[in-house]
Amino acid sequence: MSKQPLSDYPRPQFFRYSYKSLNGFWDYKITKNPEIPVDFDGKILVPYSPETSLSGVNHILQPDEYLFYRLKFLLGDFEVKDKVFLQFLAVDQIAEVYLNGEFLGKHIGGFLPFSFEIKQFLKEENELIVKVQDLTDTSYHSRGKQKLKHGGIWYTPQSGIYFPVFIESVSNDYIESVKITPDIDNQKVILNVKSSVDMVNVELFDKSLQIAANQDVHIKTDKMRLWSPEDPYLYTLKMSTPHDEVFSYFAMRKFSLVKDDKGITRLGLNNKPYFMKGVLDQGYYQDGLLTPSSYDSYVKDVKFVKSLGFNMIRKHIKIEIPRWYYECDKQGIIVWQDFVNGGENYKLSTVVFPLIFGKHHNDHDYKKFSRQNEEGRKEATQEFKDTINYLYNIPSIGLWTIFNEGWGQFDSKDVYSELLKLDNTRLYDHASGWHDQGVSDTKSYHVYFKPFKLKNPKKSGKRAIILSEFGGFVLAIKDHMMEGNHVYKSFKNEVEWLTKYNETIKRDVIENIPKGLSAIVYTQLSDVEEELNGFITFDREVVKLNPDVVKRINDKIKY
Fold first, then answer.
1. pLDDT (0 to 100) of residue 279
2. Which of 127, 140, 465, 469 could disulfide-link to 376, CB 3.0 to 4.6 Å?
């Protein structure tokens, strides 16, 4: 492992050259004393959480423990301009940050980035301290699939810094952000470049323009090449002020609901019905858990998904480093992005029984959905909004999943309405699996242990029907597995597995397409700890099934 892993610039959607990675070996200490320590226990490899083997620590942080990081670093040849930002792409779960003895601030939430402006505190030799506490599933904070008593579909909890850390230097006239909205119906893209200056230079569509900052600017094109999984064309975008320069990209594409020639509501891409066939991807790796060992892992995963004949990935209860989304943009994979769940301890009757009995509940019942804490509901709603703002410019994201299987679900009608104000350019699944409240763009099903059969839909139906989880077939590979299986269907060999997969695709998918089925998500890309239902093993060393055979089966799925 490199002494500075994941050191390449992590944000292709907002690229600058003034960058210094702070990944590498930091000092660490795990203690029950909340005071900043003088002595440290040893070295931890950032950005890997202490629970991972790659970190070199192998310790599960408990709710009553504090994890301290210390990094001493020199500025060296790093150019200090008017402002310097210290950027964290994710720290789980509660972080306090100090630089050279000065308190920079506190951040709560384990899945979104945050930053501090630090120039006034910088020296040639610097000491950075990060104090972390992770309450995991003992609080209402968002936690995703992490659980202290892990097993089955709940995984090893992780804490601390698990995505890249870096500093970035900019001028006073720097470009703070950009919002990019393609509009293929009017052959234009809408840019809103945020900056302290009045005018910004942009280069796109083979044009060089000067546009107003801090407002929507509509830029038309005479020639438009649409993005799709079959032709994932990306346009380049350069933005500059007299002393700042940022590189980005975008795509001309549109996700919407459309009617087919029989009047059935379908998911649409670029105003045409488009069957989205995807795989569930939880973004876990055996050695780094939520963090890949290298960005090449992202490249290989996305290429593997395409080799299986899928055109979509459902990113399940996790937000990735921006470079993962870049691979989907570039290689042509539609992304369904889940928001990260939280809440108090989930009730079995709420999150599991509906799979068997199919009963839906009103999600204003906060007690039933483990969402009694008002502050937790407010925090989750804000995180959903922050997630949309953070990932808004990703061309490949075509659908937001708000809640999954009742995990911390609440007020989904109201939440959906609020999120629609932020982004009405994508589709929404407000309740994936069950506890449907009758809103958003999709009617979503999870089916694992019985055949899936639709009745012929009414032609005037307003929502598209999606099978957002199914399958989960297990083929365990000796010496490449953890003990466990959860409760999925197991097979002895590849032939048995492929036979069942082929039968299921025909019965549950192809036969339901004329009845309104518009998309599927197979569970899942890789094994994850005790779940052994992946196309590949958790360590990514064994491809369990012939990709060409799987692709031939998947190629039959179409309108």
1. 98
2. 140
